[in-house]
Amino acid sequence: MEIAYKEAKSILTPQQHGFLAAGPYPFTHALSAYTGCGFGQTTCGLYCYAQFLPNWSMSGFAAPWGLAVQVKTNAPDLLEKKLRNMTAAKRRQLRIFMSSTTDPYQPIERTQLVTRRCLEVFARYPNLDLLVVQTRSPLAERDLPLLRQIPYAWLSVTIETDDQQHLKSLKGGPPLEKRWELARTASEQGIPTQITVSPCLPYTDLVAFGTRLLNSGAQRLIIDTVVDGDGAEGERTARSPFARTSEDWAATTHAHQLYAYLQERAAGTIVIGWSNPGFCGIPPRFSQESGAPLLQTVQHLC
Ligand code: SF4
Question: Which atom of ligand 1 is nearest to the CA of 134?
């Protein structure tokens, strides 16, 4: 793995267009503490759209996606400065997705601690609207005590199938059992937890996977496909190594069946979401007009 260290110029990237800026409750910013991703040589690297974005192609690495990472060493300092210089009213509008172009808990985070130090900053500012920490890495368990201190934080765990053998037959990835465990532990510790089946890969059995998701402890379950969720109706994925690896890469029937199954059986406070409306479906904590706290209600999105 090639590693480079860089002082970034900014750390909160405004979201004005694209996936995160759409939907019922869009994100205002994305935060990536790294450029490149250490999971890029696993299954998700086959379809990961971040490898096509300018921040990677212009990063100066000659190494393939997944074999080089740039560490934004000053990310926590930039974040602290940005939040400190905002008015409380501006901070209340912040809805941050961490991260859209890297995994905040990729292997290098174990020693670099940039994500951890960013969370320490967030913990000093209790009145943002939303922080979603999106990961497929069991390493996130290390920082659950910190996430508990951030009243607006959600942990979002990617579990794209329940079929470890299928995952292995592609290019592997963090063990699925450890990811289930992460979601369970986080929810037991009172951290708002979401599972994203994104993109939904072939699974063992509809009832077995669906039941496990419903009993996982997660309060939100989001189903997505590479056709619906790559931001280009599948066109980006068509150019990806995934399309060359999997003949039926564009099939979405199994994802729709899972979504329908979950919708039919979800009870109580579990929200079932689909693709963009699901990802961007966490209601605000504050009124954007008056800044007053809003009553949180459970929404079933379709
Ligand atoms: S973890 Fe996310 S950012 Fe990293 S390679 Fe996989 S899909 Fe891309």
Answer: 2
Amino acid at 10: S
Closest CA to 96 of 25, 29, 143: 29
84 CA → ligand 1 middle, Å: 30
Q: How far is the CA of 39 from the centre of ligand 1 (A)?
A: 6
Sign of the Cα torsion 30, 128, 146, 218 reads negative
Domains and CATH numbers, the chain: 2-279 (3.80.30.30)
The answer to pTM > 0.90 is yes
Q: Beta-carbon neighbour count of residue 281 at 10 Å?
A: 20
| Ligand 1 in reach of 102 Cβ (< 6 A) | yes
Q: What percent of the chain has pLDDT over 90?
A: 86
Burial of 16 (0-12, 13-18, 19+ CB in 10 A): exposed
Which helix (H) or strand (E) covers residue 114, if one does? helix 114-123
Q: Give tens-digit pLDDT for 224-258.
A: 999 998 878 888 899 899 999 888 999 999 999 99
Residue 198 to residue 200: CA distance in whole angstroms: 5
Q: Characterize the bridge pairing of strands 2-6 and 68-72.
A: parallel
